[in-house]
Amino acid sequence: MPSPLAEALAERLLGRFPPDRAYDRAALEAAASEESAPALPRTVRHFIERMMVRRVDIERDRLRVLRQPWLDHEHPDVRHAEERLLAAVRQHVRIPAEAWERVLRHACERVVAYLVRPVPALEDFVFGEGFDEGAPQQQGAPQQQGDADPSDADPSDAVPADVVQRRLGYFAAYAYLRKATSAYVEQRDVHSFQREHLMTLLRRVDERMCADYDTEGWLRLLQPLFALARTAYPDHDGIPVDVLEPFFEEKKADQPLRRLRTARSEHDLAVVSPVALQEILNAAPAPASPAEEEPPPEAEPVSEAEPAPEGRRRGSRSPLEAVPARLRRSRGAYHAGVAFLCKRRRRRKQRKRPPALAAVQRKQAGGTRRCVFQARVFRACALRAAHR
Question: How would you write 329-381 as a 3-class SS string?
Fold first, then answer.
């Protein structure tokens, strides 16, 4: 079912480009005659142009099927004439008036879904209904050769890599998904993609690209979606909050999503402009929800009469407290702390005793002292990690 944004965008564009005539590339690129009339957004125009190019390829394949043995199609003159014909057709391809409304609505629906949730939209476009074989058919219309038949498509079947790359090329925004897929195909020499294989790759690329985005990065990524929203809702310079929330959810951007929801509940927001979104993302971090926030474990009070742990004098510092702060704050605090304490202990022993005597005593003591020391360090590190 099309989203409200896609429906509003299609209605707005149909008012500017009515379905009473055929549209070629020149008509699609024509500027609006009035300032109030919206031009065709770049992402929508790119999708429609790719459909037109694909239609030329389908017609070329039809011509090759209809070849007759009475004609020498391999003759240089015939092949040259065929190439000139295809070049002329590509320059003058057009969408007929009776198909224009269906094509425009189909393009708006696909592009909006892709800009909000790119990976699920690509999954449906590459493996699901519609594919990219020309314009969508009307209900009850005969299926044309070269158009995809959803009833005959098996979602479990693999799609050739060149077909996947061609279908990803229908979308102008988020070019990093298309480039990453092409690089993966070249480096791994991939010939086809299963559904789960391609979706895992695209999801991993999308999450890694957006993991370190700041406010400027998010605003830059949302520019195509803001452009569609301005065309669909000329009275509101912004994106509906109902569209922004699934966008951040798909990116797994918890902090921007939390800040957006906090601002929506406090100010009753329905539409967010670029300036308002910048202020929301630059605001102080929003508190975590009760389900996400876990209370820290309470430390058990140690009374003065309670004896100190075995092997540790009363009033002495914990072994982990001697670890520098830069090691305690790092991701490998556990292993770095253990290594630091072991190294410091060896240095102290070397200063107190000659190296030869220290080696003899360590050999005589076996592994008992080392085991006791490591157990103390592990226990201190575990307690420290539990109290974070």
Answer: HCCCHHHHHHHHHHHHHHHHHHHHCCHHHHHHHHHHHCCHHHHHHHHHHHHHH
